[in-house]
Amino acid sequence: MTSLEAVAERAARSAFAYRFHRRHRSEAARLLATIEADRGPLPGAVAQQCDDWAGDVLGWRGYAPWLRVYAAVAGRFREGWIPDNYYGRVVLPAVQGPYGEVSKLKPLSRRLLQSDLIADVAYWVNGGLYGRDLQHLDRADLAAALFDGADRAVFKSDDSIQGAGVRVLHRSTFDPAALATLPSGVFQSWVEQHPVLAAVTPDSVATVRVTTAVTDDGNASVRAAYLRFGRAADTHVRSDSHVRVAVGTTDGRLAAEGFTPRWTTVAAHPDSGAGFAGLTVPGFAACTGAVLELHRRMPFARCVGWDLTVDAGGHPVVLEWNAGHNDIKFSEATQGPCFADMGWERLWRRGRTIPAQRGPGD
């Protein structure tokens, strides 16, 4: 690489980092404003603790905005929190590397994880149609496979995030000829959810996000959990409209309050009116046991967010795994610090990853 190319590469990395941190700073400021409007202003002394922790422990005060959001939700500062932009720029390169990106290629999940708990039925990849065991599948046979016992099914495109790229398919209108218009992705069976979940959100399938992490000695453990409920106008859970409720990692009990996408609090689902206090995720122990076993089969990505639901019989069904920039900020704010024993706050000192890049004015 010539010196000019090296300069250009450094400039490109710096520009990317600046945009990355600016986006996080803007999102954190927006959420903090709505949280303070809901709960009252963050005390100055607590804000100062966030700033000091970011600068003294994490090496840069540019990580403080997310700490302030967490503190506004928790009502106080807690040592050990991992800001979301620190997680993305420092932690993930060290604990995931390129292995986390594999989770974006959804047709690979069942083959990599070797589990029948995954709801996959068929795959559409690069113009080819394949069954669950990767054998060629005729288009004429797809409908029978998809709608076996249900009138609905789901298609998820590769790299779909936050509910985007998800299509709910209906037996009455499904046309195999339309495959040519789809990107590569996975077809999954429709899950009739447990009555406890259906009572809260009958129009879309509620999902449980369980976050697990693998320590340096190879042990996998549950770090956080929350339940995502869709809204009445949606066919599936979407990040721009869902309601999230923290879930106890040992007993599966829901918190008394949920959060809207703006992080304002609600005690009941806005559409069904069902309250959260006193509810427990059905089959929660089976859910956590399942994802821990799956993470042991794929330990290279050290922190994974697993999305599951629970069927009518109380059995876990794995919908997808997220090992890229999986969401930790909601769990850090409501249940954290979730990773205080991992030593992640020291990663920036070890030279194991690219240090955070400052932008103008930071």
Could you explain how this protein is built, in words?
With 362 residues, the protein is of the alpha+beta class. The protein has helices at residues 3-39, 44-56, 64-74, 84-95, 109-113, 142-146, 195-198, 284-297, 329-335, and strands spanning 120-125, 128-131, 152-157, 166-170, 185-189, 207-214, 220-229, 243-246, 258-259, 265-266, 303-310, 316-322. A five-stranded antiparallel sheet has the order 2-1-5-3-4. Helix 1 (3-39) packs parallel to helix 3 (64-74) and helix 3 crosses helix 9. The two termini are 30 Å apart. 42% of the residues are buried.
Present the secondary structure layout:
Blueprint: H1 3-39, H2 44-56, H3 64-74, H4 84-95, H5 109-113, E1 120-125, E2 128-131, H6 142-146, E3 152-157, E4 166-170, E5 185-189, H7 195-198, E6 207-214, E7 220-229, E8 243-246, E9 258-259, E10 265-266, H8 284-297, E11 303-310, E12 316-322, H9 329-335
Antiparallel strand pairs: 1-2, 1-5, 3-4, 3-5, 6-7, 6-11, 7-8, 9-10, 11-12
Distance between the termini: 30 Å
Portion in helices: 25-40%
Question: How many strand units?
Answer: 12
Number of domains: 3
- For the biggest β-sheet, the strand order reads 2-1-5-3-4
Rounded mean pLDDT score: 91
Radius of gyration: 21 Å
CATH class of the largest domain: Alpha Beta
Detail the poorly predicted runs.
352-362
Domain Alpha-L-glutamate ligase-related protein ATP-grasp: 186-330
Organism: Pseudonocardia spirodelae
Protein name: Sugar-transfer associated ATP-grasp domain-containing protein
InterPro entries: RimK-rel_E_lig_ATP-grasp
